[in-house]
Amino acid sequence: MDIFDFKPHKYCVYFSVSKIVLQFKEILKKRIRLQFEDDGNFMYFKKDRNKVIVFFEEIEAPCPNTAAEIAYQRLDLFFSFYKFVGNKRFFSIQKKAMIIENGQTPIFVDAHKFSYNIIEDIDFKKIGTTSDDLLTGILVNAQSEYILLRKSIELHNTALAVPDLKSGFLNLWASMEVLCQAKNEGNKFQYVLKNVVPILKKEYLSIIISDIIECLKENLSEEKYKEIMDIVDEIGCDNKKVFYLLLLPKYEESRNRVYEILGDYPVLRSRICLLAELNTTKKVSEYIEKYIQRITWHLYRMYRTRNSIIHSGDVPSNIKYLGEHLHAYVDTTLSEFIIKLSGDIPFDSTSNVITDVKFAVERIDSILGKDREIDNNIVDILIHPEIGHTMHCQKHISN
Q1: Is there a contact between 271 and 246 (Cβ–Cβ < 8 Å)?
Q2: What is the pTM of this model?
């Protein structure tokens, strides 16, 4: 046998994977040259009913096992980013891969990793395109940071895959800590605070508005939802319209109609009323600063929990609650780095991203520093405090 002659051979490597992969067929064919059409060899590969066969052509490797590893890494490259963007939907690969060299008898070897947890009810076309764009952008703009981001993403993904809440919590914390590596010797936790809190501060109102929009869509008919959006005169996406609707004084009377529509949803109506009361910069500033104090205390509590688990094995009864909040913080932080490092503006390092966040927070503090009534310009900055258009769609920006 010449399989182990240490010379490169060309193999076709076949995997049996979840049908979800079909949602990304065009992206995967274009980016990693994954093949979907039967080349006549599919009949040799026994697959589960809920799976499809895909394969890579001409993988050069010294042996079948190495060929399977190389092929898997290509597939894993895309789905690691897909998993982070999506969070929770099950994607699986059968335990064995089929390897064929130049029409010879198929060989079956281990396919290594077997599953991912990925989100339910996702727009597959959007998430696939997003994952592709992010990966391509990072490799173009900030290739030097790819290893760091990949490590953080893998820790995030591992946290979601393991059934143990304790291990999941530690992996989530490690994912965030990797992104906030100290540039010199010092307390790692202080670097977490220094980097994570400004990102959460910058995104706080946008996250609240996005959550309100999701609640509106889930509970209202399309007609009622459209009626609320049509109240706003300004042109823009739904996020911008809801920002304007809730914060601008000129929509004070119009909000009464929103309260009527939400008559059967007292919690959602109460949340909107609370935001509508933030009609001056002082009130908005106080609202944000209270949040900053809460998350700072929360991060301290999480850090103590992390230390308690590691050093004494103690697991608090509220570990699930803490882990869910930590997961949200990790997602927001990791998204900030990934989106900016893969965007049109050439951020080529995590340090540049952190600097951009610092300037954005200073801009928010500047407009909120003097007490005055909320106007369009203030809302536009709250929506998008960055100087560059890296985080939001162009429709956020006023004409």
Answers
A1: no
A2: 0.68
CA angle at 138 for the pair 136 and 139, rounded to the nearest 5°: 65
Dihedrals phi, psi of 265, to nearest 5 degrees: -130, 75
Query: For 97, what's the count of Cα atoms within 13 Å in the CB-facing half-sphere?
Result: 29
Strand order in the sheet with 96-100: 51-61, 9-18, 96-100, 107-110
pLDDT in tens, 120-175: 333 444 444 555 555 665 566 556 677 788 888 888 888 887 778 888 899 999 99
Q: State how far the Cα of 301 lies from the Cα of 331, in Å rounded to an integer.
A: 19
- Closest to 108 (Cα-Cα) out of 199, 46, 27, 31: 46
Angle at which helices 124-141 and 319-341 cross, to 10°: 60
Say if CB 243 and CB 382 are below 8 A apart. yes
Q: Positive or negative, the Cα torsion across 332, 333, 336, 341?
A: negative
328-372 per-position pLDDT tens digit: 999 899 888 887 877 666 677 788 888 889 999 999 999 999 899
* 212, 247 Cβ separation under 8 angstroms: no
User: Using an 8 Å Cβ cutoff, are 280 and 373 in contact?
Assistant: yes
User: How many beta carbons lie within 10 A of that of residue 264, not counting itself?
Assistant: 9
Q: Which two tokens stand for residue 249?
A: 């004084």
Amino acid (1-letter code) at residue 361: V
Query: H helices within the chain, ranges in order?
Result: 25-31, 64-86, 124-141, 146-161, 165-179, 188-219, 222-230, 238-247, 255-261, 266-276, 281-312, 319-341, 350-368, 376-383
